[in-house]
Design a protein that fits this description.
mainly alpha; 144 residues; single chain
Length: 144
């Protein structure tokens, strides 16, 4: 392994049944995030910063999920790093308006995957993880 090269341990998505109410779905998310933290003991957690969107229903749901993730990370004393989609695309591809397929390609090559990560949400999360690994280790070097 190359020094400072992120290593892929596992990836996927947390899915909940759409028939459940919001509180039940958030509880599942909280439990799953807590289990992931206990299992993998991450040094930092990266999440996407919200940006303005015209879909109010989506922004509310995403805000609630972000809040749960931040709360669980804080409970476990795991530092949180936030990145906008523009920051992620700029770091991963060198261009803030990069297409989703370009980001997936770089993520695939970075982790030496045979195929692009699926679903798209998993690929986005891996891109954020790459940013987090880089910026977290950079911040550690600066503070030492």
């Amino acid at each position: 392994q190359i020094k400072n090269q992120p290593e892929l341990v596992d990836f996927g998505v947390i899915s909940t049944d759409k028939k459940l109410n919001d509180a039940e779905r958030l509880e599942i998310l909280a439990d799953d995030i807590a289990e992931i933290i206990k299992k993998y003991k991450p040094e930092a957690i990266g999440i996407e910063k919200l940006f303005f969107t015209t879909n109010q229903k989506t922004v509310m749901t995403v805000s609630q999920a972000r809040g749960v993730i931040m709360f669980i990370a804080q409970q476990h004393k795991v530092p949180i790093m936030e990145f906008t989609p523009l920051q992620v695309k700029s770091f991963i591809c060198g261009y803030g308006k990069a297409e989703k397929k370009q980001v997936q390609f770089v993520v695939q090559k970075t982790f030496k995957l045979k195929t692009p990560p699926k679903p798209d949400d998993a690929a986005d999360a891996l891109a954020i993880a790459i940013c987090t690994a880089h910026h977290y280790s950079k911040n550690l070097r600066l503070s030492q």
